[in-house]
Amino acid sequence: MSYERHIPAMAEEVADLLVTDTGGIYIDATLGTGGHTAYLLDHVPGSFRVIGLDQDRLAIEKARGFLERHSGRIEFLHGNFRNIKDLAGVAKCTGIVADLGISSLQLSDALRGFSYQGEGPLDMSMGEEARSVPKLLATAGEREISYLIKEFGEERRHRAIAREIVRIGLENPITTTGELRAAVERAAGQHGLMATLSRVFQAFRIWANSEMDALEEFLPQAVELLEPGGRIVVISYHSLEDRIVKRFFKLEESGCICPPDFPECRCAKEKRLRIMTRRPIRPSREELQKNQRARSAKLRAAERI
Ligand SMILES: C[S@@+](CC[C@H](N)C(=O)[O-])C[C@H]1O[C@@H](n2cnc3c(N)ncnc32)[C@H](O)[C@@H]1O
33 φ, ψ to 5°? Predict the structure, then answer.
């Protein structure tokens, strides 16, 4: 089986924003095949160390091979970043990077079911905690499926697609990528089909891996792990993800959130972050020429106060 090597998005920008201490400890919370970690270790001078975490065992195995030359400076960890505080094995760190979503390695393996282009079981799990998409399609009603496609896929034809998925499922349960692709094709027609397929598959992948919930749980723990002056850099590929990061950074940048008519503060909320990117950073035109996959990437960074 040949896998596509993942090209890290905005690696230079990540390195510039993340590294504040060349002797520090950094966490790559979405190691993937180690693209960002490799860039840091190859391009930033210093003796800093990296803790590389991923929920996908296969990704870690690949990263271990690709990063062998740096093995003395990396610790590989398997697990979900929603448990980052328990997993990290350090009380504090200098910086954390999270490059959300899916890697080219995962997308290009047809047997994992992430892509409409391959033929395989509709697995879509990145880690052991994932939920079953075939089970969802067999048990959920049209409204729930329609909602997921709209919310996580941002697909306008969500109702027609959900109706067709449920109709087909009543005759033959949908358990493969090809069967899901055929249902979408029948409902949506040929116009803009590739983009629609990509959005529908994305929706079920996000649901299967509870990606938005994991992100919501990860962010506050990441802030607690950062030492003062340490930074968090997050790259997202979906507007919902970006909204979660933006709102979280804003909330952490504000102090007291008591109603204005309270005589004194009762919330005791502290400012914990300083936002470094008022607007998200997007990949340059030159980068997009080399890496189309980065086209929806948005980078936001903040510093622990
Ligand atoms: C976009 S890729 C990262 C690629 C990596 N930055 C590189 O350059 O090779 C996203 C990775 O994050 C992992 N991932 C996604 N959600 C995760 C989570 N909640 N916990 C741990 N890893 C996660 C995926 O398994 C995938 O390998």
Answer: -95, 20
Looking from the CA of residue 126, the nearest atom of ligand 1 is 25
Q: How confident is the model at residue 1 (pLDDT cuts 50, 70, 90)?
A: very low
Burial 167-178 (b: 16+ CB within 10 A, else e): ebbeeeebbbbe
Cα 257 to middle of ligand 1, angstroms: 33
Ordered by start, the domain boundaries in the chain are 11-105+211-304, 131-208
- CATH of region 11-105+211-304, choose from 3.90.420.10, 3.40.50.300, 3.40.50.150, 3.40.50.11740: 3.40.50.150
Q: Tell me the CATH class for 131-208.
A: mainly alpha
User: The tokens of 208 are what?
Assistant: 């299967």
Q: Which two tokens stand for residue 245?
A: 């990061």
Pocket test for ligand 1, best of 82, 103, 109, 211 (most atoms within 8 A of CB): 103
Give the pLDDT mean for 247-268.
93
Task: State whether the beta carbon of 32 lies less than 6 angstroms from ligand 1.
Answer: yes
